[in-house]
């Protein structure tokens, strides 16, 4: 048993402070007692063991209750909106003393141009007729679907993999000939080929000699199967016939779109997926209640995938979905086999779904921050409060991570989970760390235009941006991750954000990235060179970084 965690018949509703002080608690979080004492940030319920399960009352992950940090952000946003809607003389005089905050989007503009540049490099489609469709062999297909379960299923969370693998076996067993396979359900074939294409994003050529993977280059095959997935989407008449399969296909292709340079197609199809999801009512728990249990959970998972990618955009594209316009529970903390009826494991058992839930929480924090920033009228002092509260919320997510997802050395030592048994843990941990650092850059860099004030607050946010940039580069290039895990456009985007932040800082200091290979910007350039054959975003990143260096050169 974990030290300090007691066994009891039910989880207490009173907060720890009231329980220890033996005073009446109103059982809210934060409770009235803690509010009056000014200790709301530490108001929480005790974690206990009930029938061997670690529990905390009122923390059911299925419900999206607002945290204290959320309420602070909302309060700041509402205050700013009131100021924006009711200008008066007093406010104008106040603004003269504390200038209106003006967003400097210099760094963000690089991210916008990075993806816009992909528009002009559109590659011709490789599949336009049934004659262009190429299936893998059965042996290759079995291998790739198995790899998809390990490598990408927890990234898109669009499938219940045991069900999909059963459908995959039935497809091959019932359709021996090429013509029969072509005549199969096009909506399912779209899912199938999107999965094949997405898993190849994380393959290198060295994967092929000892495995039954395709005998041509993984890059060529990835593009071919990506085009095939789009081909079968069209054959399924996806714009006229809204189905869950279409939503699943597009969610999986989210891994591939930008790697093949289809940035605007990505944005447009993502909007289509959201609209279809709304049409078939997987954005409403009341409608989901009528679906079978496993399908209901698949719908929750894939809906939140759509929301994560809508609220955590690659640049400041306006989100499509507003938080108040849907009601979907968080995914259940269960593995696929548990959903199918297998015996439930302890709550502390490592599960890939924890990653998905953390991503949801990060997306919610960042979306609320962006909405507050956009809707309010901010001064230089009030926007600092917004940034600080958002940064605190991100830090709280780090504290609440399961031990095996924390980068803290002591947490990793205590977790003791084998990479062999849980091959996804180290990659989830690295991806989350890179994203958290990138979000801290995105949140804090809005103050870049007032760094020159040299106040302690501004020195702090400048330090956060530079330290986070360095951390991203180290996580990607020094953590010992297998090279094939670094192929995705998301990794390139994180590294590009870090490199641009450092390059602009060097430019402001009157210098530039020197030729030393150990220079952080040069290291990113070298990495982009190594993956550019697999990643069109890396090609665009190289062009923009070289332009920045040239501009700031002697």
Written description of the protein model:
This protein is an all-alpha fold. The protein contains 24 helices and two strands. Among the domains are: 1-59, CD2-Gal4 (Irregular), CATH 4.10.240; 126-341, no CATH class. Helix content is 57%, strand content 1%. The chain has a two-stranded antiparallel ribbon. Helix 6 (138-151) packs across helix 10 (186-200) and helix 20 runs antiparallel to helix 21. The longest helix has 23 residues, at 353-375. The protein is globular. The protein starts with 15 loop residues before the first helix and ends with a helix.
Share of helical residues: 55-70%
Going across the major beta sheet, what is the strand order?
1-2
The percentage of residues in β strands lies in under 5%
Structural class: mainly alpha
Shape: globular
Give the total of beta strands. 2
Q: What is the average of the pLDDT values?
A: 83
Biggest sheet architecture: 2 strands, antiparallel
For the CA atoms, what is the radius of gyration?
25 Å
Please outline the helices and strands.
Blueprint: H1 16-21, H2 32-37, E1 48-50, E2 53-55, H3 68-85, H4 89-97, H5 106-116, H6 138-151, H7 153-156, H8 161-174, H9 178-182, H10 186-200, H11 218-235, H12 244-253, H13 263-279, H14 285-288, H15 293-311, H16 336-339, H17 353-375, H18 380-400, H19 409-415, H20 425-444, H21 456-478, H22 489-508, H23 520-531, H24 536-552
Antiparallel strand pairs: 1-2
Subcellular location: Nucleus
GO molecular function: DNA binding; DNA-binding transcription factor activity, RNA polymerase II-specific; zinc ion binding
Organism: Exophiala xenobiotica
